[in-house]
């Protein structure tokens, strides 16, 4: 922040400059009347006199935020792995499909066999390409998690159990994918089961405007079984085709920017945020801001508890080192310095307060008019 003259500061508070100087002396700062003091000290002083401080030259803060969304140079862009969200009705086999693809056993260890959070996993395909999968819960209670899952991905896989058919959260998931504007592939799961009826699934989805390629539409349906492994290779192939068309690119050379998928307070490790990198690269030691939370990246941990020095585009990772637990769904980005981080947080808090009091004012005005 720019320095401000003591006389100017005193003027704005309608007090004598000498009083400001006296206060500064008390705070251990030897200054003269004609000197300038920095913004942070000014804020302290203003608050000492019982006023509310607001940084006026917020331009610097705005600049940071604007730089963060500025365009990348064509030459810096490099291909990035696709991010694929897996959605569908509860128990239709989303986690099982991902387990089969990763040769892991997450589904078996879940409480009550129900996914209650968003999982993010990197899968390395045989050809060496990487795909990032986002697992979402199918239980009806988790609408916001599904919406969040859909909004940060490149492609959606809609899982429908062939024996159960289209159910309420199938439709909900479909609508999230549509709202997010992401292309969708339908995985008709549990093909190994007696009573599996993939045609019924196709018919039911056609009633919701999703028409299979085989029926003259443009949605790919892949019959699969998480249990036998049937169709999983084909599913990956279709995903590869689908994402190739998108030509996904990002700029790994810029400062990291991502979305907090999830956050929690870990007893031993403190605040933990699961971050999906959208652009740039996060590095150990970076100072980050998310909402009004700041911190320095102490560790970058992958889903197998392995530590890394950096995390580039499309990579999901656990971030340790935040001062407190941020709200999930928020944007996180790297800044130049801790001071910049503090400036941004103060700016945001000021704005919040402003909007809060605006809303309050409006509310009381409304009340006033209502009572007239
Ligand atoms: P939520 O996350 O709670 O919405 O469930 P989910 O969609 O992740 O389903 P999950 O993978 O937990 O599987 C639910 C049940 O279906 C489990 O008992 C699985 O073993 C079973 N299941 C999943 N895929 C298949 C399959 O291909 N065939 C058969 N027979 N059972 C399957
Ligand atoms: Mg699950």
From TrEMBL:
Q: Which residues bind GTP?
A: 88-95, 135-139, 189-192
Where is this chain's protein located in or outside the cell?
A: Cytoplasm
Source organism superkingdom: Bacteria
**Residue span, Tr-type G domain:** 79-247
User: What does this protein's UniProt record list under function?
Assistant: One of the essential components for the initiation of protein synthesis. Protects formylmethionyl-tRNA from spontaneous hydrolysis and promotes its binding to the 30S ribosomal subunits. Also involved in the hydrolysis of GTP during the formation of the 70S ribosomal complex.
Indicate the family of this protein.
Answer: Belongs to the TRAFAC class translation factor GTPase superfamily. Classic translation factor GTPase family. IF-2 subfamily.
Q: What is this protein called?
A: Translation initiation factor IF-2
Species annotation: Mariprofundus erugo
Q: Coverage of the whole protein, first to last residue? A: 505 to 876 of 1083
